[in-house]
Design the sequence.
């Protein structure tokens, strides 16, 4: 049975006042309507229909952590779907191989098929263990140099789509090209590398930067660092727009400098939960005052959801709605090489968020199927 949604619909060419139709398989049949100015969209009482959000950095949510394995990934994907995320990457932590194998085993079932009320899990973001022990952030200290056999072993359990590494760690730079040629997206993070390290890593095939500004060498006018390499040379980088991890002024710098800067949540098991104690891998973290921290006060991921990320972009940061949508959806899809998500065009999956004029969620469609937002954690 085909399904049709009406309202102000964001297409790759801009907003139209009309309708989008899905076929029985959950793909977009077509979008029809009359072009409408974006300012009129925000002033109207009609529903706003955008591509579903895509989050490439998700550690947890709803009280569950990806590193738990078992059915944790399913619960995390359901938590984030209730906030408009229609596709995501389950993100692991720096850990012993046995812990990573357990986490990957839990991701495998979600990555293999669509699950009820759950965002589609597109694979794994392997955040470490190939990072610098001097820039752990909230990562446990199980760092090691890149191991191609280990990556191959994990990828056989569940597909790895992104790998975060520190290019300055001995041996890592030499493996970037091999990883890139094998089909993995390599990005820099948890790094004490120099600007020159960042430029060389990009030349070797690295494509992105992990939670820009956080857990990397910062920008100084005589030592631009990895952040400077990103601002000067990157097409893609992820950033956490919770207004806690990165000052709004630094966010504006990145938005001007990096054409396809895209947003991630870096969310933890504390997302959607009350203040209290939670887990981030093997570590205890505390949610309070809108953030998540280790006992020493270090930020340890976030409680951000992508619907709030959109509101922060269009509110505090003043982005137009079409640009804000691209930065929580389309750019991430393009970076990942996923042509049938992150846009409402014929043949794309019917991943949709329906919003009111204040950008609050009204409905979410996962591959053409509506979910009950009452299930939100």
Sequence:
């Amino acid at each position: 049975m085909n399904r049709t949604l009406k309202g102000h619909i964001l297409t790759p060419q801009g907003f139209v006042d009309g309708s989008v139709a899905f076929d029985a398989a959950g793909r977009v049949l077509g979008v029809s309507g009359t072009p409408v100015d974006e300012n009129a969209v925000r002033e109207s009482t009609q529903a706003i229909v955008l591509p579903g959000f895509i989050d490439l950095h998700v550690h947890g949510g709803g009280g569950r952590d990806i590193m738990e394995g078992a059915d944790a990934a399913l619960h995390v994907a359901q938590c984030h779907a209730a906030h408009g995320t229609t596709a995501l990457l389950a993100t692991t932590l720096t850990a012993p191989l046995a812990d990573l194998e357990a986490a990957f085993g839990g991701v495998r079932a979600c990555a293999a098929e669509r699950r009820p009320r759950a965002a589609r899990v597109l694979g794994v973001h392997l955040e470490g263990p190939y990072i610098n022990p001097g820039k752990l952030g909230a990562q446990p200290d199980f760092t090691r140099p890149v191991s191609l056999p280990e990556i191959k072993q994990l990828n056989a359990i569940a597909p790895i789509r992104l790998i975060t590494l520190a290019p300055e760690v001995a041996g890592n730079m030499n493996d970037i090209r091999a990883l890139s040629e094998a089909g993995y997206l390599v990005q820099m993070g948890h790094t004490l590398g120099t600007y020159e390290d960042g430029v060389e890593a990009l030349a070797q095939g690295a494509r992105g930067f992990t939670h820009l500004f956080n857990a990397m060498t910062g920008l100084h006018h005589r030592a631009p660092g990895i952040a400077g390499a990103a601002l000067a040379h990157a097409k893609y980088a992820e950033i956490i727009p919770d207004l806690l991890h990165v000052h709004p002024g630094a966010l504006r710098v990145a938005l001007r400098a990096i054409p396809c800067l895209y947003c991630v949540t870096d969310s933890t098991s504390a997302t959607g939960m009350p203040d209290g104690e939670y887990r981030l891998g093997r570590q205890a973290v505390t949610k309070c005052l809108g953030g998540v921290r280790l006992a020493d006060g270090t930020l340890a991921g976030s409680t951000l959801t992508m619907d709030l990320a959109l509101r922060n972009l269009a509110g505090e940061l003043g982005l137009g709605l079409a640009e804000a949508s691209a930065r929580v959806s389309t750019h991430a899809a393009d970076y990942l090489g996923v042509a049938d998500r992150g846009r409402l065009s014929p043949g794309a999956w019917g991943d949709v968020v329906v919003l009111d004029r204040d950008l609050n969620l009204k409905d979410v469609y996962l591959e053409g199927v509506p979910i009950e937002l009452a299930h939100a954690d």
Notes: The chain has two domains: 3-49+355-375, 53-339. Residues 3-49+355-375 form one domain.
